[in-house]
Amino acid sequence: MREKILLVGRRRSGRSSMIRALLREVEAPVFGYETVTMGTRTDGYHEIYLYPYGHARHEKREENHVGDCNTRERVIYKQVFDTLGTSCLTRKEAGILVMDEIGFMESDAAVFCRTILDCLEGPLPVLAAVRTGIETPFLHQVTEHPNVRCIEMAPTRFDEIYRELRPIVQSWDRRLRKGEGCERAY
After folding, report:
1. pLDDT per position as a tens digit, 163-186
2. Which of 91, 142, 151, 171 has the fewest CB neighbours in a 10 Å radius?
3. CA dist., res. 66 & res. 163, Å (int)
4. What value does the mean pLDDT of the chain take?
5. Structural domains of the chain, count
6. How far apart are CA 67 and CA 78, in angstroms?
7. Residue 58: pLDDT band by 50, 70, 90 thresholds?
8. Phi-psi domain of 106 (left: phi exceeds 0; alpha: psi -120 through 50; beta: other)
9. Is residue 174 in some structural domain?
10. What's 117's domain CATH number?
11. 30-40 sheet: strands from edge to edge
């Protein structure tokens, strides 16, 4: 069974909501990262920040500010992906690894991209949101990786997908809490 599940879809397709729903009952450690888009500023841009997954406070600081976007232009701070993003993925204990989201912005952050691909090769279960709509060679590598199972998200299929994935995530949780098959490879 593939233990790298990628929830793929466009904005507002329910990918992040599905991750939260699936992890609601999990007792095993959960780590990784999540990105949060802030409201639109007066200049038309919205700011995007990266946080360790489950981080309680959503502080806006230079160290976690990955970019600013409007409908036409993007300013991307790839060094934040390569530093904070990479550190969120290389925790030493076993658990469920969350990547929310993998998208086009990090495609030029070489260290971060290599770390994501290494995680897809590693022993830990992965639950990730992958944004579609703007294709890059890196996103193609991720979605075509032989260890992943891609599930196309759509709001109309939320309950169906949840019923399909819940037993899988629960089995990860049970196995990790028992300490089975959770050695860290990187």
Report:
1. 999 999 999 999 999 886 554 433
2. 171
3. 34
4. 91
5. 1
6. 8
7. confident
8. alpha
9. yes
10. 3.40.50.300
11. 74-76, 65-69, 46-52, 30-40, 96-102, 126-131, 4-9, 148-152
